Description:
The chain has a single domain, classed as HAD superfamily/HAD-like (Rossmann fold).
Amino acid sequence: MKAVFIDKDGTLVDDLAWNVEPRRITLCGGAGPALRMLARLDYRFIIVSDQAAIAHGQVDEAAMGPMAHRLGDLLFRERLTLDGYYYCPHHPNGSVQRYAVNCFCRKPQPGLLLKAALEHEIDLRASWMIGARLHDIEAGNRAGCRTLLIDNGTEAEWRLGPRRVPTRIAPDLYAAALLIATEGDTRR
Length: 188
């Protein structure tokens, strides 16, 4: 199986800081048609998201369940299935001790993608990581995926490096889906 790993904030849903209120979570414009196009190409959808607000004590980890439910519901309304929701609650500078750690799941590390791939039997070389930050791209490249940067103004650091070069760049998720559709199943 192949998947599209998608970062949540600013890629799949509108980027509202620390937003875990389910009714305020909305899909980015064009996300439904974009994902339907990719579903017709047999891609599975797995969200991989850093949730540092948990480590900083601004959000309780219990909010992740309702958030995942809301994301699944938004995709269901688009006649789509969310195959997985993976998040990292850690940040090395966090104020909540048990989450204030360096980990293998916080992007740019590939841990979330590798865990999801193992649990869902995903072929990483046939898959894509889509995100609006270069940490997303680096995580996807480290995992062995092709990568697509949504260049929507969200990236603030622009620290470049060999693992931070995306396979493709698009202005939004719909344009990203078009690029993925034209790439086909070619492997790197």
